[in-house]
Amino acid sequence: TYETIQLAIADGVATLTLNRPDKLNSFTTQMHAELADALKAVQRDDAVRCLLLTGAGRGFCAGQDLSDRAVAPGGETPDLGESLEKRYNPLLKTLKGLEMPVVCAVNGVAAGAGANLALACDIVIAARSASFIQAFCKIGLIPDSGGTWSLPRVVGQARATALMMLGDKVSAEQAEAWGMIWKCVDDAALAEEAHALAARLAAMPTRGLALIKRALAASSTNTLEQQLDLERDLQRLAGRTADYQEGVAAFMEKRQPTFQGR
Ligand code: T3D
Fold this sequence. Notes:
Elements: E1 5-10, E2 13-18, H1 29-44, E3 50-55, E4 59-61, H2 80-97, E5 102-106, E6 109-111, H3 113-119, E7 123-127, E8 131-133, H4 147-155, H5 157-166, E9 169-171, H6 172-177, E10 183-185, H7 190-202, H8 206-219, H9 224-239, H10 242-252
Parallel strand pairs: 2-3, 3-5, 4-6, 5-7, 6-8, 7-10
Antiparallel strand pairs: 1-2, 8-9
């Protein structure tokens, strides 16, 4: 059992809820440790075929908890590089490397590392009242948690630069219009839509979905030549899954397929 997060596993979906609502689910060292532990459990559990990440209360995640970052005059400043190396970067790498689709249900404000955590997920669905803020610049920091890598790729250099230098709030509707997220839905519909989406993904050929994730991750740095080679290698793996055989058989027999994620 965890204190700062909740993990619930049912019907192939692991739902991970950031759970420090009074502080808008901002990151503490404890929350990082619990998240790392929960993600390990998710990774190890063969029954889990999709991860759904969300936040409790009115916020999704307000980034680093700044209450333990204030330094008394003359005091020693914390090493933020170490904080990234030990906590944020491993979290991002784990999420990106998770061999299953990751859905993020952004239930409210996503600021700082919270915004970039959402952008690191595979499919992002947000409540209409939610927003995204690259808040780092307002306190003299640079965007982390992969934001300087992901944001220009999804919204382009001009918008990414302005958002990161100004720290302006992007509404969920704007984020959808800019292609930052998959879609925005009415607040009252978010939980149900997100769960339905996660359940739908969990019933799909999830080995194949994990391979799609790998191909897309590599495509941003690969040449076409390299990417074609990678598609060959990954398609070879996909072609050996039981789900592929089931998909073809079901199609030929004109029936609904039953996939097992292997
Ligand atoms: O340090 C490192 O390890 C390096 C890594 C850095 C990664 C980062 O994420 S740096 C960026 C840190 N985050 C921010 O700068 C965002 C700070 N928060 C805000 O700007 C605002 O809270 C929001 C725009 C997100 C939401 O505003 P609003 O008006 O809806 O809510 P609020 O009243 O500001 O916040 C509600 C409560 O949550 C409030 O507590 P209180 O007064 O009721 O006891 C507020 O202090 C608390 N809270 C919100 N964000 C944080 C926080 N407490 C600690 N740290 C936070 N980041």
